[in-house]
Structures are given as C-alpha cells and as structure tokens.
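User: Can you help me understand a structure? I only have the sequence.
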Amino acid sequence: MKKLVKDANALSDPLNELGWKDSSFKDYEDQRDYLKKNNGIKDLKILPPEEIEEAKKIFDRDGFVVIKNALKKQELKKLKKGCDEVIREILALDKGRVGNRGSHRYSFGSSSITGHIMHRHEWAMLLDLPTVTPILNAIFGFF
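Assistant: Let's start by predicting it. Here is the structure, written out as tokens:
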C-alpha cells in the first residue's frame, strides 16, 4: 500500500498543474464536441422539468431520465466551485496522486470523515430541487 504524502501546493496551484484537468481542458472540449455529434443513446429524449409524467414514463421504461436545466446557473456555479474546493482538499493529502481507487481516482464521499459530503451546502442543496423533487415524487411517491 502506498503512503499518502501531503501537498501544500494543492490548495493554491491551478488545478491543471496538479494533474487534475478542468472542464475547459482542450481534450475535454474535443470529447464534448464528439459526443454531441455521436450521442451513444439513439433518440435520447431530454425533458424540461415541467414534463413530470413523461419523465416518470421514461424512467419506468429505461431506469433513468435526463432533465434539462435541472440546476439553475447559480446552483451549477456553486456546485462547480464546491467540487473544486473538495478536489483541492483531497489533492492536498495526496501529492503522489495515488487515489483511493487508482491514480487520480477519488470518491468525494469517502474522502470525508463522515463518509459523505452532505454537510457542505453545495451538496445539501441537491436534496430538494424544485426542478427535480416533483419528478422524484412521481417516480417513487414518497416526497
């Protein structure tokens, strides 16, 4: 088992310099463009949050449903910022980038002493989104 070594630079250096690529990394942009042109799920239906019954039908049929704009821009911005902060906290403890499941592979939840990160507002806000909760209620019927 490899020993974790602390990395003080992880809290301040740009993420790209720490071996963690951000979403504007050129390879990721190219991959996003490719996936837009070559979607792996033919005729994948992406629904607005208001189409609750259609979302339930699709979930019952496929086991998942895709909801467009489930997060508002500010919520998404807050979640991305929270992810960056947690990534830095994790990398600050792992200079060799050993990961918990191989190089550069980490689990946000298991990186916390609580076993989850619901104590952070960025994740707690996901528990009751007005765009998603009505769909979950229609699917599971317990909200």
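Now, to help you interpret it: The first helix runs from residue 26 to 37. Residues 10-140 form one domain. Let me know which part you'd like to focus on.
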